[in-house]
Amino acid sequence: MRTIDPPLPEGGLWQRLTALYDAVAAAAAADMEAGGVPTVLSGDCLVSLGAVAGAQRAGLDPAIVWFDAHGDVHTAESSTSGYLGGMSLRLVMGAHPEWAAQPLGMRPIPAQRAVLVDARDLDPAEADYLAADGPARYGVEDVGPAVLPDGPLILHVDLDVVDAGELSGMIFPVPGGPSSDAVLGAAQRVLATGRVVALDVACPWYPARDASEADRRAAVLGRLTALT
């Protein structure tokens, strides 16, 4: 396991974030070119930009399978909070390319080559976009080879996709979700295609309140990363 912690330049927010994502992309690309399937662990869905850029630098044209309790398809114009993590998938698909995609040399993944899994907590603007132009949406139980895009796949899993009653302490917890067993089973079906070129895991949680909560989190994360 390597920690990606590059020196960050002076400048604005996106200059600094892009420096981090560029380092992630370089490490991921090197792993892929060596025949590996890198696992990228972070606390933020935006780091997926580095995973996508890395796959493209390795000569691949990936689609993306995005497990999340939220849509992550806001733009700066549609978001009422300005929270950048809520724009993550939309940035991967080409929104605001000047922020990170262009500096990284990342080509957007078309909505037709993206799959959004669960996304049970949507703002009205996100629901409108997904109904009109967004990627295909599926429940965790429906995920399998028949619904996946062709070609190489990046598998993105935000652990808040697991029901908040089971996996507590997330920054934006959402009840009424699937169990960790259901999420892991669906992720395993994606991985079983043999087409996953990177596993990108976001773990956006607060410090555990007690040892039991920490153990539950570690168990789910360990089982997920062990799938590769």
From TrEMBL:
SUPFAM superfamilies registered for this protein in UniProt: Arginase/deacetylase
Domain of life (superkingdom): Bacteria
Keyword check for Manganese: yes
Cellular component annotations (GO), alphabetically ordered: cytosol
Record keywords, A-Z: Hydrolase, Manganese, Metal-binding
Entry-linked Pfam families: Arginase
Molecular function as annotated in GO: arginase activity; manganese ion binding
Family, as annotated: Belongs to the arginase family.
Cross-referenced PANTHER family: ARGINASE (PTHR43782)
The protein's name: Arginase
Lineage: Bacteria, Bacillati, Actinomycetota, Actinomycetes, Streptosporangiales
